[in-house]
Design brief:
Transporter, metal-binding, two-stranded antiparallel sheet, glycoprotein, 2 domains, 739 residues, 3% strand, Amino acid/polyamine transporter I, membrane, sodium
Length: 739
Amino acid sequence: MPKNSKVTQREQSHEHVTESVADLLANEELLDYKSSSLTVGAASEKKVPQIEVPENDGRPAWNSKLQYILAQVGFSVGLGNVWRFPYLCQKNGGGAYLVPYFILLLIIGIPLFFLELAVGQKIRRGSIGVWNYVCPRLGGIGMSSLMVCGFVGLYYNVIIGWSIFYFFQSFQYPLPWSDCPIRKNGSLAIVEPECEKSSATTYFWYRQTLNTTSTIAESGGLNVKMTLSLLVAWIIVCLAVIKGIASSGKVMYFSSLFPYVVLFCFLVRGLMLKGSIDGIAHMFTPKLEKMLEPQVWREAATQVFFALGLGFGGVIAFSSYNKIDNNCHFDAVLVSFINFFTSILATLVVFAVLGFKANIMNEKCVSENAEKILGYLNSNVLSHDLIPPHVNFSRLTTSDYAELYGVIKTVKEDGFARLGLDPCLLEDELNKAVQGTGLAFIAFTEAMTHFPASPFWSVMFFFMLINLGLGSMIGTMTGITTPVLDAYKVQKELLTVCCCIVAFFCGLLFVQRSGNYFVTMFDDYSAGLPLTVVVILENISVSWVYGAKRFMQDLEDMLGFRPSILYFYLWKYVSPLCLIVLISATVIEMAISPPGYNAWVEELAQEQFQSYPPWALVMCFALIAVAMLPLPLVFIARQFNLMSDGSNKLAVSYRKTMMKDISSLEDQDEARSILGAKPGEAPSSAAARRPFLTPGSNKPLDPNSLSPNICYGTGYQNAAISPTTPSTPPTPATPESDS
């Protein structure tokens, strides 16, 4: 019992005690309600000073608020911000795409991000524990999140492995993807045909890095270089998360901040390059008609959804290590806007560099076509009279070539197609949209070969990709390990090492020669639809099953202020409706789009779309089914009482926290000496009827607030116990009516 408690003081002074249990509890210093599953406070006629009581549930905590914010930023800001957002921006109307993206960030992204932060911080458990607690019948939500985290972690770390390989290849000059390799055939030296048909960077990616096969059906065996890179990637991830947030929090100081240093360096360097302004102007020139297309809104919603890491469990896991009174509303808004502005910054960098590359490619096109025209002039296919007098072939500009091209096309209208001349328009080069690995490992690497001191910039770029990927992987691994550690008493280090070892061996699927196609498969099918279903069930379980009004009251008790009423309507109506539309659009797109992948055909030296074979189709839909399988299984099992509701530990934890300082009151004789001035004297009935109040509130605590069995219609009640008042059974809780 605390040394400064009233009971202890009275025992030491041997004075008569005239207060009842309710009096004692009303005037006692606040117990550790932060570590409890419920929010219980004390009320008295005079204000009692509150003291900070450390959480005693043994749960680790962040060293500082900055560390926590960097962890959330590192998890949400990932590779998609660099190679997915710029592509969507270019594809969907340039600057006009930012309008639907920002609107959907406000009505879907921030509210759902806030919801996940709040439930994790309040209940202080990982994804499985949180949803078991909110609604045991929907406890499969957390298990599905864990399954999706596992699938995503398997292939995401492969991408980090690719970045590690390119990182080490960058320590040489010239860069190994600068030129096509020369094949020697006796005394003859010829350029590698596959490289000559494509480009040096494309050849290096598909042949020297992946050594890819032409179809997914051809395994081709393990790629040794990629296997070693994957091993290094998993060792780095394991070391980063082996101590939980104690180690990953420190890593985040670097892995979250370093990418911004690189992005700003690239932006400054990019703006100094010829053509960079052309790229940025092309990027942000709005095509307003695009805003009326439903596809643009669907892709914006999908990007908002995945950019914040909703549904993965990492957001909930990170926030569960917070103090219960942390202002998670501020965190949600801050991290969301940091994510948004990071995407804008990355888009500026990408299109500044791609604008420079487009100018290089355009000048190369002009040079090659000028040689063709000179050949036609020398062979009298074209007349010298067609050449404008001011045109100088030794210093032919793009504007001169455009004029020359127009003249020849007009004069040689019938036979122009046989000449094989290209228009060499800068706009055409800028419209060549690339995303994903095509942007990072082909387009961007090609642009960097033209940089002065290109190895330095290449090292910086791929080190940035490694750190971006590492931040997301730390969040993904935390989303896996935290629920397991909450449910089972296992050693954190042992669990982490075992997870990484198993993941490495499972990841060998992605480092065979056809592994790139499996990365595409997992990216398309393992996360998209299952995560959307997970998040809409999260939304429904809180706003409809648990009750949006009750949740708003819990937030007020936790934060000390009531969030805007807009959140009530967004959680209750707007977000579920938007998510239902998004799920419907995703299912329709999957139904009308033929499932397939872009295969690299060695003979043609180009990508070619191929449909999945039957066994691969089964694998695609198995990924969706396995990820979503826990949802119906847990619901059925708990509906028919085939498994426990998973909330007993939380209930016991609460009871222990509330009763630990008054456990001695169970003894009847000791209770009499405390409850009355004389043995047998009845306590004051007025004090015994005094209700518990939530901190900072004048309203009695809702007995069903945050009840772990709310889905079953039962709630824990916590009333003052008096010898004259018999204990009553829990009052059934009905689903909340918000009308």
